[in-house]
Design goal:
Length: about 190
């Protein structure tokens, strides 16, 4: 595989990739993807496997991590600040047919290393979701505190981020209203690059 910049030419491939990775109510629209690719091209990375685009990470820069509590997944683009010191991953999409290869791990690790080397970036922060929250009865604030025998969160997506060095910063109410499985809530995460 290789990781490369994601130009606007990739948009026709990125649309079906997003559809394969997200339920329709949570999927980024063509307009959202185009805005990311044109407004902040250096923050969009594509992963190719044997020459075929199978993964992408979208991001933007922002100045204030606390502002995430006042936006949802559709309006968060308003926080983009080209001089911001915080890199915000907006989505990591890997084609389900190749997820067994750990390409999401490679893509995230590349992104974190790139952020560490980018002048002016001091932190990576985002609002993620949970994969298995709907399968239990705990409130989300207690659910995200649950740990497996390895010390990682019991939720697979949270474990994915924590395994790469993220800290969980609590629940964000109403971040993804259509995400009924997570009651519309998200989980704020942050990576301290220093």
């Amino acid at each position: 595989y290789r990781v490369r910049s994601a130009p606007l030419d990739d948009l026709p491939i990125m649309l079906p990739l997003a559809t394969a990775c997200w339920p329709a109510p949570l999927c980024a629209s063509a307009e959202e993807l185009q805005l990311r690719l044109t407004r902040f091209p250096e923050g969009q990375l594509a992963l190719e496997l044997d020459g075929t685009l199978v993964g992408v990470i979208y991001s933007q820069r922002m100045s204030d991590i606390a502002a995430l509590a006042h936006h949802d997944f559709r309006s968060v683009a308003a926080l983009h600040d080209p001089q911001g010191s915080i890199a915000q991953p907006l989505a990591i999409n890997v084609l389900p047919a190749v997820q067994q290869y750990g390409l999401g791990d490679q893509l995230l690790e590349f992104f974190l290393q790139l952020a560490t080397l980018t002048q002016g970036i001091s932190q990576v922060a985002a609002v993620t979701l949970c994969q298995a929250f709907a399968q239990q009865a705990l409130p989300m604030a207690r659910y995200i505190e649950q740990r497996s025998a390895t010390g990682l969160p019991v939720d697979p997506i949270l474990a994915f981020h924590v395994a790469h060095g993220a800290q969980l910063w609590g629940v964000v109410e109403g971040y993804r209203p259509p995400d009924l499985a997570n009651q519309g809530k998200g989980v704020r995460i942050a990576y301290d690059l220093q």
